[in-house]
């Protein structure tokens, strides 16, 4: 049986959580004192803030929302 899901369900994409954490970290780094950091350095440092436990939690969170999406219920944050 096929179930309709919207073309893009951000709550079912753990990468959204990863990018959100990386973006927040980069903003924090860039809002600090001016330094000689390169963009690639900021990105590398920001990506390093995402732990294995973060990734596991993002997947668990996504899996908990999957039945609601399959049932066609709207996502409420």
3D architecture notes:
- The chain is mainly α.
- Helix content is 60%, strand content 0%.
- It contains three helices and no strands.
- The chain has helices spanning 14-31, 39-47, 52-70.
- Helix 1 crosses helix 2 (39-47).
- The longest helix is centred in the C-terminal third of the chain and has 19 residues, at 52-70.
- The protein starts with 13 loop residues before the first helix and ends in a 7-residue tail after the last helix.
- The model has no long low-confidence stretch (mean pLDDT 87).
- This is Tc1-like transposase DDE domain-containing protein.
- GO terms for molecular function: nucleic acid binding.
Provide tags for this entry:
single chain, 77 residues, mainly alpha, 3 helices, 0% strand, RNaseH_sf, nucleic acid binding, Tc1-like transposase DDE domain-containing protein
Shape: elongated
Low-confidence stretches are none
The number of helical elements comes to 3
Task: Give me the count of strands.
Answer: 0
Q: Give the N-to-C terminal Cα separation.
A: 28 Å
Helix content: 55-70%
Averaged pLDDT: 87
Helix and strand string, N-terminal first?
A: HHH
**Proportion of strand residues:** under 5%
Task: Report the radius of gyration as a whole number of Å.
Answer: 16 Å
Which structural category fits the helices and strands?
mainly alpha
Largest sheet: none
């Amino acid at each position: 049986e096929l179930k309709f899901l919207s073309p893009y369900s951000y709550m079912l994409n753990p990468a959204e959580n990863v990018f959100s954490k990386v973006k927040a970290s980069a903003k924090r780094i860039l809002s600090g004192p001016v330094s000689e950091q390169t963009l690639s350095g900021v990105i590398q440092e920001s990506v390093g803030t995402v732990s294995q436990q973060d990734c596991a939690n993002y997947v668990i969170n996504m899996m908990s929302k999957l039945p609601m999406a399959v049932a066609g219920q709207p996502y409420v944050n």
